[in-house]
Every structure is written in C-alpha cells, then in structure tokens.
Write a structure and sequence with these properties.
With about 800 residues, the chain is α/β, with parallel strands linked by helices. The chain has 19 helices and 38 strands. The chain has an eight-stranded parallel beta barrel, surrounded by five helices. A six-stranded antiparallel beta sheet has the order 24-25-31-30-34-37, with no helix packed on it. Strand 2 and strand 3 form a beta hairpin. The longest helix has 27 residues. The chain is elongated and about 90 Å long.
C-alpha cells in the first residue's frame, strides 16, 4: 500500500493488504496489517512466514479507511501519508515514435491532450541511443540527455499537475557492441536462442544475458542515472517507470529472433604468411555482405573479426572466434522475417543454470532420477531444447513450449524465471533508491495467458505483485471484446491473481493489425470495447498510444470517452462464484491448458471466473514414467518402449554414408512397424491436431506407446532453397540416406499377435486413424486396413491387427498414421 509510519528512531511499519481464504465457506477476505518494514516499505523478514497475520504489529483491519485512521496507528508511530497510486484512476499518453513524429510535433500533442484530461506522459528512453558507448554512460554528459530533457521540461511546463513516466529500454542495438568502448561482447554475453544465435529483434535489438552480471550492472547503472536525473529535474514529478528489455519493450524474455548467417560470394581464401591474418583475395571477388572494420565475418565456417579493409576484394581478419556473420538471416529470397525461439542458451546462462541445479539437487544422482538422464556431474548437464535447428518463421510456438513439459524443462523454466525476477527486483530497488522510494515500478507484458507467455516468462502472475511481489502495477492487453472473446481470460487472471494495480494499453495499430479495424470508427469501437470491459473489471489505468497520424483525432475521442467513463463508472463487476484453481506446472505441461480450463468452467465475455494460481511446478518422481523412452523430436513427443531390442532387430549391416541400413537375411518371424512420431496438421489455418497411441500384443504387453506433447503444422518447403523442417516427416526411417540418428521403426514378434492398436485424439479437431500394409507384392503399393476419422469426443479407438500372414515382397511392413488433412 506504501503507507509507511516511522517512530523517529529508524524503525518503520507499513500497511499491507492481504487476501485470505476462509476455509469454512470458501470465500476470500481482504484485510489490512501493519508489518515491520524498511524506509521503502519492504517488509522485514520475521520468522519463516514474515507476512503472516501473526507478525502484524497491532492486529488486522477489515477496510482501508479504518486501517489508516490515526487512532489505529501502532503505538509510537506517526507521519503517515497515504499513497493513492493503487486506487487512482488515470490515463497515460504515450507518443511511441517520437523520431517519426518529431520532437516539436510531439510537444504540440503533449499540450493538446492535456485539454482532453491527460496528466501523465510516458517517454521512451533507449540506453543505446542516449549512450552509444559505455564510456559515454560513465561520462554521463548533459548533452546526451538533450532530447529527453526537452520533452520532460515541456511536460513540466504544461501545468503544475502533470507527471512524467519512463519506459526504460535496456536492450541494445547490435551495431554498438563492437570495439573497445562496447557494453559487452555480442557473441558471448548477449542472450542466445537455442541455435546459439545472439538475440536481435527488429533488425538489431537484443538484451544482455540475465546471467552476465557485469552487463546487468551497466543496465542498472543506466536506470539509476535516469531516475536520479529526472527525479531531481522535475522536483519529484516522476510517477512510474518500466524496464522494456525486449524488442517489444516488455519486462520479459524475447520469444523470437532474427539471427545472423553466413553470406559470402565467390572468392579465394588464403593465409598471409607470417601475419596470422586471413585475406580474401582473387580477381573479381564479390561479397554479398557490407564489411566494416571491427565487424565479424565468416570464412569457411569460422567467425573472424575484420581488422583492415584494403579493397573490395581484400581484407585482413583476426583468428577464429566463432561461427557467425554480421548479416541477418533471409527467408524466401531476400525477405527478413522474425522466427519464434527460446532463450537463454548463452555461455553465462548455461554456467549459471548448472550452478542453480547443483544448489537445487543434493547429488547428481538425484537430478538424474528426476530428469531420467545419466549425467556424470553437474558440470556437464545441458538445458533442454526443442530440436528446431534452422530458423523458420513458421515454427509452431507449441513445439517450443513443449520443452517445458518435463521435469528438466520445468527446471530450465524456473531457472530463467528466477533470473528475470531477480533482475527486475534489482531494477525496482534502484528506482526506489533514486526517488525517495516514491516512483512506482510497472511490469509491461504483451500477455500473461497466450501461447507465447511460457516463452516470455510471464506466467507466474501471483508472484509479481501484492505482498512480497516486485511491482506496483501490471499492464498487458486485456478487456472485453466481442470479436476476440478469449481476451477476457486475462481480465480474470489480473483481477483474481495479481495483488496490485493493473491496466491495459490502447493502440490504434493493435486495433487495426490484431483486431481487424479497417477505419477510424472501427478503431474507436474496438478500443472502447476493450477499455470499458477492463474498467468494469477493476482496471484503473489506461495507456493511449497513437501510432498513425490519420487516427490521431480518433485517439483524442477515445481519450475523452475513457476519461468520462473512468470518472462516472462506480459499479464494478462483483466477484464471481465460480473458482478455477490451477498451477504454473499445468501451464508449462500444456500452454493451452488454462484457456481450455477457463472455457470449460464457463469463462466468457459475460461470465467471470475467479482464478487461483499456485506456484506448484508439479514435478513427478520420474520425468517419463518409462524405462526405455525415445524422443526423436524432443519437444513434440515421447515414445515409451517395452524393450530396446525392438529397435535393433533386422539391422545386420549399415552403410556409413547417410546411415543407410541394409537388411540382409531378414527374419520373417518379426514384422516391421512404421509408427508416427506426431500428428501433422496440413491445413494452413485452424487448430492443431494431436494424438496418443499404443500397440499392444496378445499377451497384454505394451510394446510401444507414444504421447504427443504439442501440435505441429506442416511447413511448406522454401520455394527458393527447397528447405523444409525435418518435423515435416513424422515417419523418420534411417534406411534412407539423409535420415540420421534414431527413427520411428520397430520390429515386433508375430508370435504375440494379434496386436491391438489404440488411437486417441487429444486435440480439438478431427484426425485420420490410418493403417496400411506396405509393399504387399502382386503389383500393389499398399493395402489399406483402417481409415477412420476420429474427433476428440470419440474417445479411444482401436483396431485388431492380424500379423500371422502379412503379405510382402521382402519385409512384412505395417504403417500407422494419424494426420489432420
């Protein structure tokens, strides 16, 4: 609450609001306690549960008015001044693209919107633009702040009741990393995706690894200097601040990337004798990249730093230090596109993850038992990966999120979440330290409930605010919108789970690109639907963002309407009677779980659900529950085998080139079972299909079972390169050149027939249950045994397979398939 009292001798108490459940009737009560705090209002640990009612200084109070009454202050304490931020209703104006709009035009708009009720102005401050080098950050010259000073001074001059807030962007453009004055090394200290490409969003933006302390200290140094400067310059009229550390300006991890890749034209590579430098020489040599001194370039797969440039056909470079160039990856010809991915696989992050796991598990044997692995020590453990090895903009986010479904994946997620929480908590404290504990810290996310939320690390809402939290306000897109009813789930999560002030942003660009508005009237309608629904459900803050000049008059109308609605609406939606308890573990095991559970409980635009989130990760005793697991596409599925012997029978020889197997003297007492690793969704739109299946012998032995963990949509081959991801093949077979490693072929004894194949649709759309005999001879390519369309409502389906006499030319082969066509 930030209502702090002092006894004049260096001791403080602060007023805290706590929600507690009455187990006798299942209802929730809000009560207020005075707890011992420091000067900033952060509670001081007392016992094992510092925020329990037992540590209340003078009991508890049922309402705020009674709690702040001077008659009820703890004995000997005084000087209280209630902070109204938590309950105050207001609108923030944010001119996002000041460079495009121009400083003078931005100042003009600042003055205009004051007349429409705006009192708070958000200014974006980018660390790399203020201080392109670390030396400039250390110097902290006034000239570096000139543009921000001009905007802040203008806001202060509009009226005495204006405030400024700051979106502090601690990401850096990759162009400023190089050279001795760079902030840190792009290739070592920057966050890396699972393919070990450094993060670079929107042609450059990336953030230092949250495990590289020296880099984080520079970010924190920038935050401290910014807040100190403008707290003093405005005489305390800074209201709130947020750390926008991603390409989307969120307080989160990036969930996409636009990596570098090797691009070189024809040329001859040679080594200059005695110099240690590598030259690119040859008449007529051309290069597709634009080379600059101190920038990296790849030669024969090795990353070098350019030291000198002699001509278009010659340059000198350092010795090898990596594997990247300074050009962005290009898809479909010359188009540069972002692709979904997972972070952070940088060297500092891997090292910190190992240290974290060694602290979490008493022995490596304990970790191995949890993960189902056999690591020799903590020094060699590796974080999980999805198996995606090539940047592709069509990579399904479900495929990436499936990494977090296992014990190992949950450990990886909670480690990264801890790194994020620790960094943001430090930033908040720096903001408090430089503003007399007055400036509020806001967390900004695109969402806390969508498919990307596990990747951006925004799931644990119950730990973000309220008692013991690390923020004063939470902001994401939320509201009630007729065309997008799923958006309403965020309303329920915010109002039920987050223990502090919350709000949303209203952007004309989002109205058009995300919600389908085609003209000014539709932009206004979409944004007001969202805003009214949010306000009705407890949101007390709106941020208005005009991005397009043609919609600026419309956004002024939006501000007017919202201001009036905020001032007059006094009938918030009551707490619902329906409760939904869920855990972060359930969200990690299935990123669509929460939305599906919310809908099943009746959640909609018109029906509110009380959400109750726990921090339980749901670790199982054994990750796989299987003695012989195989995961060919790790994030998509897991096979469980009765015995590893069913994988190797029949392979009597192998050709090293391409790992092609030669089946000599095949034993006809076994049949070859080609099984699907996952259901492929062929339609380019709509829900993704999923399935589980198993094959059981007459003895009751389950020879193979398969659990699909994420849906997968087929990716069309690149029209220029022909590339397509290996996941497009859900029947990998190492008999054929180019298919290396494990496959999905099994060899089962005919003697345990007949076999029963069980298929279950675990998705929301229908799929095809298909069984064929391959290469049966007699001029036929296959014989179809089963072809059935099954829906999720059909439950488990089965087929009895007679294997006593499978027709074949050379090998008895049966193929199971289960795609959505």
């Amino acid at each position: 609450m930030n209502f702090i009292l002092s006894d004049g001798e260096g001791n403080y108490v602060g007023l805290y609001r706590v929600k507690s459940k009455d187990d006798t009737n299942g209802t929730y009560d809000t009560r207020y306690y005075y707890l011992r705090t420091d000067a900033s209002g952060t509670h001081i640990n007392v016992g094992t549960n510092p925020v329990s009612r037992g540590n209340a200084v003078n009991g508890y109070f049922d309402d705020l008015e009674t709690a702040i009454d001077e008659l009820n202050w703890p004995d000997g304490y005084g000087g209280g001044d209630i902070d109204t931020f938590a309950t105050r209703k207001f609108i923030t104006y944010y001119q996002q693209h000041v460079v495009d709009t121009g400083i003078e035009n931005t100042k003009t708009r600042y003055s205009q919107v004051y007349d429409y009720g705006i009192r708070d102005y958000l200014i974006k401050v980018e660390m790399g633009l203020i201080f392109p080098t670390y030396a400039e950050l250390v110097a902290n010259d006034n000239s570096s702040w000139a543009d921000i000073d001009e905007l802040v001074d203008h806001v202060m001059g509009i009226a005495d009741d204006t405030t400024v807030s700051f979106r502090i962007c601690t990401d850096l453009d990759d162009a400023i990393f190089y050279g001795e004055n760079g902030y840190y090394d792009l290739w070592t200290h920057q966050m890396q995706d699972e393919m070990n490409y450094p993060s670079r969003i929107q042609y450059g933006s990336g953030h230092v690894s949250l495990s590289y302390e020296a880099g984080l200290d520079k970010c924190k140094e920038f935050v401290g200097k910014l807040i100190a400067r403008y707290w003093d310059r405005t005489d305390g009229r800074v209201l709130w601040a947020a750390d926008g550390m991603t390409g989307q300006n969120e307080a989160a991890y990036n969930y996409e990337n636009q990596p570098y890749i090797y691009e070189q034209g024809p040329g001859v590579v040679s080594t200059e004798a005695g110099s240690g430098n590598t030259n690119l020489i040859g008449a007529g040599t051309t290069f597709l990249t634009t080379f600059n001194e101190n920038n990296p370039i790849v030669i024969n797969g090795e990353r070098l730093i350019v030291t000198t440039i002699g001509s278009d056909t010659e340059m000198a470079t350092t010795a090898s230090v990596g594997t990247f160039t300074n050009q962005p990856y290009k898809y479909s010809g010359n188009t540069k596109v972002l692709h979904p991915t997972i972070y952070d696989y940088s060297p500092p992050s891997i090292a910190a993850f190992r240290a974290f796991m060694e602290n979490e598990y008493e022995t490596i044997e304990e970790l191995n038992a949890s993960w189902g692995e056999s690591n020799a020590s903590f020094a060699v453990i590796q974080p999980p990966k999805s198996g995606v090895t090539t940047p592709n903009p069509q990579t399904p986010p479900e495929l990436l999120c499936a990494v977090f479904a296992t014990n190992k994946g949950k450990d990886w997620w909670r480690f990264n979440n801890r790194q994020l929480k620790n960094y943001l908590s430090d930033v908040r404290q720096i903001i408090l330290d430089n503003s007399e504990s007055k400036v509020k810290f806001v967390l900004e996310f695109g969402s806390v409930t969508d498919i990307y939320s596990p990747l951006r690390q925004s799931l644990l809402v119950n730990e973000m605010g309220g008692l013991g939290g690390y923020s004063d306000m939470l902001k994401a897109q939320l509201g009630i919108m007729n065309s997008h009813p799923d958006l309403a789930i965020t309303v329920d999560v915010f109002r039920s789970v987050y223990g502090g002030k919350f709000g949303t942003e209203l952007s004309d660009d989002d109205a058009a690109t995300q919600y389908g508005a085609a003209n000014a009237e539709q932009v206004k309608d979409k944004l007001l639907q969202m805003a009214y629904g949010a306000i009705q459900n407890g949101a007390t803050h709106m941020m208005v963002i005009p991005n397009h000049n043609e919609y600026y008059p419309t956004m002024l109308q939006v501000i007017t309407a919202i201001k009036q609605y905020m001032d007059t609406y006094t009938n918030p939606v009551p707490n619902p009677g329906i409760e939904l308890e869920y855990s972060v573990g359930q969200q990690l095991e299935n990123p669509n779980f929460l939305l599906n559970a919310w809908k099943a409980a009746g959640g909609s635009n018109t029906t509110r659900i009380k959400m109750i989130q726990s921090s339980d990760f749901g670790f199982g005793e054994n990750t796989s529950g299987c003695a012989y697991p195989i995961s060919i596409y790790g994030a998509l599925h897991t096979f469980c085998l009765h015995s590893p012997a069913i994988k190797s029978f029949g392979y009597t020889d192998a050709v090293a080139a391409g790992n092609q197997a030669v089946l000599n003297n095949y034993n006809q007492n076994y049949f070859r079972f080609l099984s699907p690793t996952h259901t492929i969704t062929y339609p380019s739109t709509g829900d993704l299909a999923k399935s589980n299946w198993r094959i059981v012998g007459n003895s009751g032995t389950v020879y193979v079972s398969n659990v699909q963990k994420a849906g997968y949509r087929r990716v069309a081959p690149d029209p220029f390169t022909g590339y397509q991801p290996k996941e497009n093949n859900n029947h990998p077979d190492r008999r054929y050149p180019g298919v290396e490693g494990e496959d999905s072929v099994f060899y089962l004894p005919k003697s345990d027939g007949p076999y029963t194949i069980y298929m279950t649709n675990t998705g929301t759309v229908s799929l095809q249950f298909l069984i064929d005999i391959l290469d049966p001879g007699n001029g036929q390519n296959s014989i179809n045994l089963k072809d059935q369309i099954i829906s999720a409502a059909d439950g488990e389906q089965s087929y009895v397979l007679d294997v006593s006499n499978i027709p074949n030319t050379t090998i008895p082969q049966v193929k199971l398939n289960c795609n959505r066509n």
